[in-house]
Amino acid sequence: MLSFRAVSFVLQVCYPKIKIKIYRSTILPVVLYRCETWSVILKKESRLKMFENRELRRIIGPRRDGVTGEWRILHNEELNDLYCSPDIVRVIKSRR
Q1: Which of 82, 93, 86 is nearest to 44 (CA)?
Q2: Dist CA 93 CA 70 (whole Å)
């Protein structure tokens, strides 16, 4: 098992596809451990979504705008399109 420092180093150096695989295989299982027993309320749902979007922004990084040529941070919908997996709240609800 990799240490936190090793995982964070790998996430800085690797391509986004590899980073997403690491996110799915190491980070999500830790976050979702025993989620079947959680009582998820709206406040917790929004915090989980914020966590997921923040991590995906770190993994995918900024993109250059095609029209203006400036770097910008991706919106939530764009992150979800690139991630191509159900969001964290749907995963929790499906595990119940």
Answers
A1: 93
A2: 38
DSSP state of 89: H
Burial of 47 (0-12, 13-18, 19+ CB in 10 A): exposed
pLDDT for 8 = 64
Beta bridge partners of 64: 71
Tokens standing for 53? 């979007």
Question: Kind and range of the H or E element at 72?
Answer: strand 71-72
- Say whether pTM exceeds 0.85: no
The count of C-alpha atoms lying within 13 angstroms of the C-alpha of 53, restricted to the half-sphere facing its C-beta, is: 16
Using the structure block, give the residue that is written with the tokens 């420092």.
Answer: 5
SS3 state at 36: helix
Q: How far apart are CA 30 and CA 47, in angstroms?
A: 16
Q: What is the pLDDT of residues 13-72, one digit of tens each?
A: 677 788 888 888 888 888 888 887 888 788 888 898 999 999 888 888 888 888 888 999
